[in-house]
Amino acid sequence: MLAGAFALAACGYADPYATSGQVANESPAINVSPSPGTDDFNAGNGLPLVWLPWEAALQHVDGAPGGTADRDVDHAGERGVLFAPAKDSPERVESPRCYVPVLEADPIFYVSSAETERMQRLALERLPSFLALQSRFAKKRKWNFHVKLGFPTDSDADSHDHGHGGAEHLWFDVHKSTAKSVDGTLLNQPYKIASLREGQRGTFDLRLLTDWAIESPRGRYTPESVLQLERGLANDHVSARPLLH
To answer: For the segment 118-136, what is each residue's pLDDT rounded down to a tens digit?
Structure first.
């Protein structure tokens, strides 16, 4: 996941696109410390993290994660790896997989207002890509389309100022979509919105959109990286064309 001038990754997960992958996916949305390995930051409630440049992180990773030669052009830039500070020693780090029980309880992640606004602008700007891909691949196996919508919390519902500070941002699995709305099912239980519940399906206004994500056989793509997905699909199409004689 991109975070300013560098990207973040997390190691030690059996399924990086499921529960545990939220650590890497959500961390760039907060203020990551510019000092690698020195200052903890909190990705969410009960989720302190620290990051290291990927070269330095290799000594803390079991197995053989590969090196520079294993990176394609889209992953050749500066990258960092997320770790959890060890509870028994501030000098040690461990895999964020220790947070699996916390993540399975659907914690609240911390996102700054400025980052929420940036994500929202980019999500809206590249929404046509999401809609086109959803229309094309929605019925294909291993393709899933999700949107994040921001709803005023119950404590903020009567206020005329529904800024990002008074909103709860919730993920929906998209069944159908138009340029103005989505037919979706709520994927997580709201904390401060009594009128919504996990598993609830309905039609929701895309004016509430703050982010979206596409799970595909190629991996997970967001507004930040969807252009890579489109380029890859275009190249596949060109390669599949029959040669003309």
So the answer is: 889 999 999 999 999 999 9
